[in-house]
Design a protein that fits this description.
It contains 1 helix and no strands. With 55 residues, the protein is mainly alpha-helical. The longest helix is centred in the middle third of the chain and has 53 residues, at 2-54. The protein is rod-shaped.
Length: 55
């Protein structure tokens, strides 16, 4: 039953949807990397501002 349903979804998707899902996965990974980089940059800026004002 499960295998049959899996085959059906595979046939229903086709190539284009598979390609778009791969692109979406890549975009999601890129977004996570950008979020991490953004938070690091934000922390760095905060430390820089704090350091400049404290000296």
């Amino acid at each position: 039953m499960a295998k049959q349903r899996y085959d059906y979804t595979n046939h229903g998707r086709g190539f284009h949807n598979n390609a778009t899902s791969q692109a979406a996965r890549r975009r999601k990974k890129l977004n996570r990397i950008l979020q991490i980089v953004g938070s690091i940059v934000a922390i760095g800026v905060l430390f820089l501002v704090y350091w400049v004002y404290s000296h």
